[in-house]
Specification:
about 525 residues, alpha+beta, 18-stranded mixed sheet, 8 helices
Length: about 525
């Protein structure tokens, strides 16, 4: 906020209240960051507009004029403000118009003309002497906030005083004392109250140490602590010496006054600072170096900053305007950064950028660090997974592969999450594959007659021509009948009727002694002849 911003906003709100009849609360919603400061002033203006205007007589006017001239003469003579006035104005620092508001309220409640007249006199007094109190109020310091924007992936915030991290979405407001962290392949931008920005790359953690400014926009302070990861910072120009933008890391403090720069903090706390625009001061171990655009410095734990060095390889240093190959561009500024090696066009040279293709995969983990569309090559065949239709190179297209990144597996017949090659029961029917005639069919595990049809579906399991429903031995191709129900098939049983007479001794299996029925009839005929004699 510039010094005149608040005055402009106040004038705009007064115009809206008076000429457009906009409700006070509607006006405040248009400027939420200044609502707390605007409300008492606008409420005072509303009260004044509603108060009756006293009409002074000629004698009263002349008398007031004489008193005012006498007061001005006394002021010129003393050229000082008494301590009592200073104390009164200091007491009104938070709300210099609190007494005036009280008088307006009395006027509204009592409709007493003298009270309203007193209010107008006080307005005149404030215009002359109250400016000191108003300026003191405007110079008061106010805690500011920031918001999260451009969120990708997983971003979490630990609120001040809390021990837990909570996932958040874009638009969330953060305050001093809050901490922010990003997950893998994640990023977020912290937008500050003056529109300065700090963008967090993947696996980055920062703390918001201080956010404050005076009501008039001066003394801006934005202070962060970066514990790990990478940030890209774009700082609005600071207009007064008391303002500062500062990032502290485990090994260094970086201070700027309007610039663009990147900070990378390694796991051991080592800090690398590369400047794209402006000047950055990096301090460590009571030693400070100035880093200008196109330069970088590194701070190792326990050591002062290294000497500045080019932020890009010397072979990639931009040519001077006289050496540039811009033909026919007379009268225009040459873009001397056009020849820098900056694959992701993020204004950070590739030699210090840990994500050259800006795909959120750090170059150390990126199989294709210069290809924003690829970061993984599971089968190491030189083709990125996004393009490769067989990521594990096992011969099974990814669309048909239950395990597209496992070259040893492509099928999971029973959908139990274990590939068939490693699973000892592929169809999950309780029969190990080694004993299962149908290892991929959960409804079958046996084929007694080896006819390729599982027993559950086969109506003649032993393939002996007798349906299983009529076969006493459905799994024995040599037997289908057990006449005496002794558990032994008739083909193997030497006594099919179980009458004690072996089938081989002439037992016809009808249950008698197994003798010749014709002989018995002959004996009966002989007996009949004897009776006739």
């Amino acid at each position: 906020m510039t010094r005149n911003n608040f005055d402009d906003i106040l004038d705009k709100c007064l115009y809206m209240l008076q000429n457009e009849q906009v409700p006070l609360d509607d006006c405040l919603t248009q400027f939420p960051q200044y609502a707390a400061d605007l409300r008492p002033l606008l409420e005072m203006a509303v009260e004044v507009s509603r108060s009756p205007h006293p009409i002074a007589t000629t004698s009263a006017f002349n008398s007031g004029k004489q008193r005012m001239l006498a007061t001005l003469a006394e002021k010129k003579r003393t050229q000082a403000v008494s301590p009592s006035h200073l104390n009164r104005y200091a007491q009104q620092e938070q709300h210099p118009f609190s007494r005036l508001k009280e008088i307006f309220t009395m006027a509204k409640l009592n409709s007493f003309p003298m009270v309203a007249a007193t209010a107008l006199i006080i307005i005149t007094g404030l215009a002359i002497g109250g400016n000191f109190a108003f300026q003191t109020w405007r110079a008061g310091e106010v805690t500011q906030t920031a918001s999260l924007a451009d969120m990708v992936g997983v971003v979490e915030v630990q609120l001040s005083g809390s021990a837990s991290w909570q996932p958040v979405v874009s638009g969330v407001i953060v305050k001093p004392g809050d901490r922010i962290r990003t997950g893998s392949h994640s990023s977020v931008t912290l937008v500050f109250f003056d529109n300065s920005r700090t963008s967090l790359a993947a696996d980055t953690r920062i703390s918001v140490t201080q956010l404050s400014a005076r009501r008039d926009g001066g003394n801006k302070v934005i202070a962060l602590t970066q514990w790990m990861g990478q940030t890209v910072n774009r700082v609005e120009r600071l207009l007064d010496p008391a303002s500062r933008f500062e990032i502290e890391t485990p090994t260094a403090v970086t201070a700027v006054r309007g610039t663009e720069f990147t900070i990378q903090v390694d796991d051991n706390g080592a800090t690398r600072v590369a400047v794209t625009e402006g000047v950055v001061e990096v301090t460590a171990q009571e030693s400070t170096v100035k880093v200008e655009a196109g330069q970088s410095t590194t701070v190792q734990p326990g050591e002062p900053p290294s000497s500045v060095a080019p932020a890009v390889d010397s072979s990639d240093t931009p040519q001077s305007p006289d050496e540039s190959d811009d033909s026919g561009a007379t009268g225009q500024d040459d873009d001397d950064t056009a020849n820098t090696d900056d694959a992701s066009s993020d204004n950070l040279g590739d030699s210090v950028d840990n994500d050259r293709d800006n795909d959120s995969a750090p170059d150390t983990d990126d199989a294709f660090p210069d290809d924003p569309d690829e970061d993984t090559d599971s089968d190491n065949d030189g083709v990125g997974d996004n393009t490769d239709d067989d990521d594990d190179n096992d011969g099974a297209p990814d669309t048909d592969d239950a395990f597209p990144n496992d070259p040893d597996e492509d099928t999971d017949s029973d959908n139990d999450g274990v590939g068939d090659n490693a699973d000892d029961d592929d169809d999950n029917d309780g029969t190990p594959d080694t004993d299962d005639a149908f290892p991929n069919d959960p409804d079958e595990d046996t084929d007694s007659d080896n006819d390729g049809v599982g027993d559950n579906a086969d109506d003649d399991d032993d393939n002996d021509g007798t349906p299983d429903t009529d076969d006493a031995f459905p799994n024995d191709p040599d037997e289908d009948t057990d006449s005496d129900n002794d558990g032994v098939g008739d083909n193997a049983d030497n006594d099919d009727d179980n009458d004690g007479a072996s089938d081989g001794d002439g037992d016809d299996g009808d249950g008698d002694d197994g003798g010749d029925d014709d002989d018995d009839d002959d004996d009966d005929d002989d007996d009949d002849d004897d009776d006739d004699d």
